[in-house]
């Protein structure tokens, strides 16, 4: 059985020792910094403490949100009252664009992307100079027609340069888009997903997440996508590729054991810190044979201020 | 290892012995009677032979097609040139309606159905006097709004009498409908699917099937639906409930081992007859350890005419 995590809340010596170990903190956001539209008290001050000259830590906001570009997400942080720099933000749309342009590197011209998703994905693909179709194009936001069936089936309505299908959260998912994506996959396109969260928190409830867009394609093709969001290590590789840090000096902070903490453990980071202000409960890692146990935990993030 | 099937093609004595055993034949359609829009030669004559006074067999057309009511499907048969009676047709939309009204029998008023699907399902639910919402209602064929999020999350936009979510093939699937269906399921509605075929043949290719509509809900809730199409035995129970036949005197005829032939074997019918004009090949049942082996096969259905 794994060691139980060290609780840092109320233990200043342990907090100091904890902070001294790390140069960079990767932060999950919802459930850690805020919940829904409610900013947790002390979030801003805790981030300031980490960034301050005394500690000099690097901060990265890591989110599976695939509908927002980094710039969109910075607006969200600003709206929540959290100062940030766009370079501190790593969202799954950006992670996907980085993966396509810097790791996958399919030879042109067969490297076009068919997108299931919103404008955040398109913005990040453009920022990496990646060609794409689908996405928010109104031409795909309609019912399927007999001409579509014929042209998709015989390929005449498909773009022969599409080499990748990228599935993120698409609020405008429909039968026509699924049909296109399926046919590109059967013709050999690589299958990527920004993230595969089955649900997404909103309005203190859950709604369909990006995994709801990719799962019909998994079911139809029998293929699993390369996933560019937590806990997939393809995302960690992208983060490391961009920030060039020593994994032993990095700590992942999050509220979900099976995404955030798992992401840090499987990425062999020096540490993982769980907070109890989100989804996972202490009882989960205290359970006999708990598969995922963080190295540290605090009741709430601001407990790091001592 | 199971016995290899008896080939009937060209063996009149074996054909006569085969026909003598059965009172009722359950027919899969696409791949057996026709392929796409091409009627196989001899289909009409073979069905006539079975129905004729000399043999006096009962015929049932069994289809997983969930978008059509029995009346719609009869029009399709007529269009293909196949004479039929609406009472000979058993489609998964009808199967679902029968299951809800005669087997599930939830107490009113909490027995309303939220439908993901087309008009065929609505027609069959109406024919059984079942109340429903969703389906082809234009109120659900639109983008989700902030008001929808709030009202779905707090339940104010949900119908408290919905006790069943029925997922069939919905050519107008969207994020709003998936959100409604998901929330009804999390509030305890029973989860039913007309069928779970991941794909559907069309234009000599494949397109998303009814399974593509239910699979995001399976993924979000962790629940499996009760399935009312082949090879689910819930469909066989519905067929038996309606036609009142001796299973030992019934034979399932189909082209797909993993749906049609499996349906007949698991239903403990007296016989199964595979045809080689559709999806499955002879090599599949000849393979070492083949899990599904029909009792009989013909190269093509019209070989039964001898």
From TrEMBL, chains A, B:
Query: Which residues does substrate bind?
Result: 230
Q: Which InterPro entries match?
A: HAD-like_sf, HAD-SF_hydro_IIA, HAD_sf, PGP_euk
The EC category is hydrolase
- Where are the catalytic residues? 28, 30
Q: Which Pfam families match?
A: Hydrolase_6, Hydrolase_like
According to its UniProt record, the EC number is 3.1.3.41
Record keywords: Hydrolase, Magnesium, Metal-binding
The catalytic activity, as recorded, is:
4-nitrophenyl phosphate + H2O = 4-nitrophenol + phosphate + H(+)
Q: Which GO terms describe its molecular function?
A: alkaline phosphatase activity; metal ion binding; phosphoglycolate phosphatase activity
Q: Which Gene Ontology cellular component terms are annotated?
A: cytoplasm
State its cofactor.
Answer: Mg(2+)
Where Mg(2+) binds, per the record, is at 28, 30, 255
Gene3D superfamilies attached here?
Answer: HAD superfamily/HAD-like
* Database matches in SUPFAM superfamilies: HAD-like (SSF56784)
Per the entry, the cofactor note is: Divalent metal ions. Mg(2+) is the most effective.
Write down the superkingdom of origin.
Eukaryota
> What's the protein name?
4-nitrophenylphosphatase
Q: Which organism is this protein's natural source? A: Amorphotheca resinae ATCC 22711
């Amino acid at each position: 059985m794994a060691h139980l995590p060290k609780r840092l809340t109320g233990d200043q010596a342990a907090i100091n020792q904890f902070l001294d170990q790390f140069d960079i903190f990767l932060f999950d956001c919802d459930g850690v910094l805020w919940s829904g539209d409610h900013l947790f008290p002390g979030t801003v001050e805790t981030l300031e403490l980490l960034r301050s000259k005394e500690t000099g830590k690097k901060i990265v906001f890591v989110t599976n949100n695939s509908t927002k570009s980094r710039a969109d997400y910075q607006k969200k942080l600003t709206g929540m009252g959290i100062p940030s720099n766009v370079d501190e933000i790593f969202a799954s749309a950006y992670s996907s664009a980085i993966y396509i342009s810097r790791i996958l590197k399919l030879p042109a011209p067969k490297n076009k992307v068919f997108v299931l998703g919103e404008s955040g994905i398109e913005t990040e693909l453009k920022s990496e100079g990646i060609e794409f179709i689908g996405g928010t194009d109104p031409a795909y936001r309609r019912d399927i027609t007999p001409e579509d069936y014929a042209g998709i089936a015989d390929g005449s309505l498909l773009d022969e340069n599409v080499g990748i299908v990228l599935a993120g959260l698409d609020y405008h998912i429909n039968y026509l888009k699924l049909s296109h994506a399926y046919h590109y996959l059967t013709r050999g396109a690589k299958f990527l997903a920004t993230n595969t969260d089955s649900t997404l928190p909103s309005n203190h409830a859950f709604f369909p997440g990006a995994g709801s867009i990719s799962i019909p394609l998994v079911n139809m093709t029998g293929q699993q996508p390369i996933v560019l969001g937590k806990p997939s290590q393809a995302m960690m590789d992208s983060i490391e590729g961009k920030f060039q840090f020593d994994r032993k000096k990095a700590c992942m902070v999050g509220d979900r054991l099976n995404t955030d903490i798992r992401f840090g453990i499987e990425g062999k980071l020096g540490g993982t810190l769980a907070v109890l202000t989100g989804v996972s409960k202490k009882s989960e890692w205290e359970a006999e044979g708990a598969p995922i146990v963080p190295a540290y935990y605090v009741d709430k993030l601001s407990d790091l201020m001592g």
